[in-house]
Write a structure and sequence with these properties.
With 477 residues, the protein is of the alpha/beta class. The protein has one domain: TIM Barrel (Alpha-Beta Barrel), CATH 3.20.20. Strands 1-2-3-4-5-7-9-10 form an eight-stranded parallel barrel, surrounded by five helices. It has a two-stranded parallel ribbon with strand order 6-8. The chain has a two-stranded antiparallel ribbon with strand order 11-12. Helix 13 packs parallel to helix 14.
């Protein structure tokens, strides 16, 4: 393969604070959403259904995010390993409740701010560019229990205060920002993205879309503040993206697939990049009884302060059929369609479709014509430590090789792609199930679903493979 990646391409890895930091009660941090989500299969049931009370029950459940992989105390060791791989960028998030423990305070927590100062300084020491998500599934618990999460317009102001605090503090250390992680996923799982459990399944859509509107307003406020406070900064949105295929060429199925793609893939992108609600929402809102509380000035704000780039996660495509049976359903990353007969699946049932990444890049760039940044992609799998201590994860190498080849093809197609940060570059806690056995990393962490483990770090075979990919700027895969 010829070198198809531009000079200065941002190769690296990605994590989220709540999934690797641990230290949940250290440094003045307050409790957040992730701290009250138990580990194991019960977690997915909680985030998928109404009725969660956001309380901990340590007698019944284990809470793996409390310690996670202890990045809070081991960040220097981990960043040194990222540097050894050759990372140009590290996509991370800031735990909102480290900065404002309850979320509604007037003044920030200095210990929390100082922690991220140390992290950014360590990254810069190794020549690694931080790419920072402001809110990544970790809204302060107090904002959930006292205000009802993003359903409440007051949370917009609390987020604005947090964003401005971060921009002012780190204006000389962070250039690339993203406002909300996988913002469109909130339509399906408002607990993770919007910090509330719907009153009922019947009210979920109305509540979620109102919460999303509040996040759109908050995002535009952050774009404005970021540009004012940090000249030359790049403020992006972040979507979970999956191209939607029709199961066949029956027009009813094709139309169904198009409508699914519009609402899931393009609603949030259109508002944040084009600055307005797309035309298809008028009919959707009417037919579903959606009435948004849009305040004076909201639509002007959205139009005037759009994002500079699109960050997105890509794990799989999605195949749709208008009428489907339970037997036909496929597993997926917060969404599911029907099984695609042309694709293989991971151990967790996620279908593997590298060509879908090329399709996604072309679709996004054709629609928006802003730079794109793949900030999550990877294979969750069970890794075995051999008797000699090695981890031979050839399956991960194969997965990543095919997806990086697809990226190269998309660049040849004319797509402006600025970077790639592989998800879970070091093993961490799964967001959807709280598992540690679902590993994505180039770096193995000796930590297990039952809480046991030494936290020792080990390099997998993929570590050395990715090291060479970065060293050759993608020309050797």
């Amino acid at each position: 393969m010829m070198n198809q990646f531009p000079k200065g391409f941002l190769w690296g890895g990605a994590t989220a604070a709540n999934q690797l930091e641990g230290g949940y009660d250290q440094g003045g941090k307050g409790l957040n959403l992730a701290d009250v989500l138990p580990g194991g299969k019960v977690r997915y049931s909680i985030i998928s259904n109404p009725g969660f009370d956001f309380k901990m029950d340590k007698e019944q459940f284990h809470y793996p995010n409390h310690e996670a992989i202890d990045f809070y105390n081991r960040y220097k060791e981990d960043i040194a390993l990222f540097a050894e791989m050759g990372f140009k960028a590290y996509r991370m998030s800031i735990a909102w409740s480290r900065i404002f423990p309850k979320g509604d305070e007037e003044a920030p927590n200095e210990e929390g701010l100082a922690f991220y100062d140390r992290v950014f300084d360590e990254l810069h020491k190794h020549g690694i560019e931080p790419v920072v998500t402001i809110s990544h599934y970790e809204i302060p618990l107090h904002l959930i229990t006292e205000y009802g999460g993003w359903r409440n317009r007051k949370v917009v102001g609390f987020f604005d205060r947090c964003a401005r605090t971060l921009f002012n503090r780190y204006k000389n250390k962070v250039k690339y920002w993203m406002t909300f992680n996988e913002i469109n996923g909130a339509i399906l799982h408002p607990i993770l993205g919007l910090g509330f459990s719907p009153d009922s399944e019947e009210t979920r859509l109305q509540e979620s879309l109102q919460g999303l509107h509040h996040q759109f307003v908050a995002s535009s406020m952050a774009v404005k503040a970021g540009h004012d406070i940090i000249p030359g900064s790049q403020i992006g949105c972040m979507l979970v993206y999956a191209p939607v295929y029709s199961i066949d060429c029956q027009p009813a199925n094709v139309m169904h697939a198009l409508q699914e793609e519009q609402m899931f893939n393009y609603l949030c992108g259109d508002v944040q990049v084009r600055g307005e609600y797309p035309a298809f929402t008028k009919r959707f809102f009417k037919e579903n009884g959606i009435e948004l509380d849009i305040q004076d000035g909201d639509l002007e704000l959205l139009k005037q302060h759009t994002v500079d780039y699109i960050g997105f996660s890509y794990y799989m495509s999605r195949t749709e059929k208008k009428v489907k049976t339970d037997e036909e359903k496929a597993s997926g990353n917060i969404f599911s369609g029907v099984k695609n007969p042309f694709l293989q699946a991971s151990e967790w049932g996620w279908e593997i479709d590298p060509e879908g990444l090329r399709i996604s890049l072309n679709q996004l760039y054709d629609r928006y014509r802003v730079p794109l940044f793949i900030v999550e992609n990877g294979l969750g799998a069970v890794d075995k430590v051999e008797e000699d201590g090695s981890i031979k994860d050839h399956y991960r190498i194969d997965y990543l090789r095919e997806h990086i080849q697809a990226m190269g093809e998309a660049i040849e197609d004319g797509v402006d792609l600025i970077g790639y940060t592989s998800w879970g570059c070091i093993d961490l806690v799964s967001a959807s199930t709280g598992e540690l056995s679902k590993r994505y990393g180039f770096i193995y962490v000796d930590k297990h679903d039952d809480g046991s483990g030494t936290l020792e770090r080990k390099k997998k075979e993929s570590f050395y493979w990715y090291q060479n990919v970065i060293a050759t700027n993608g020309s050797e895969l």
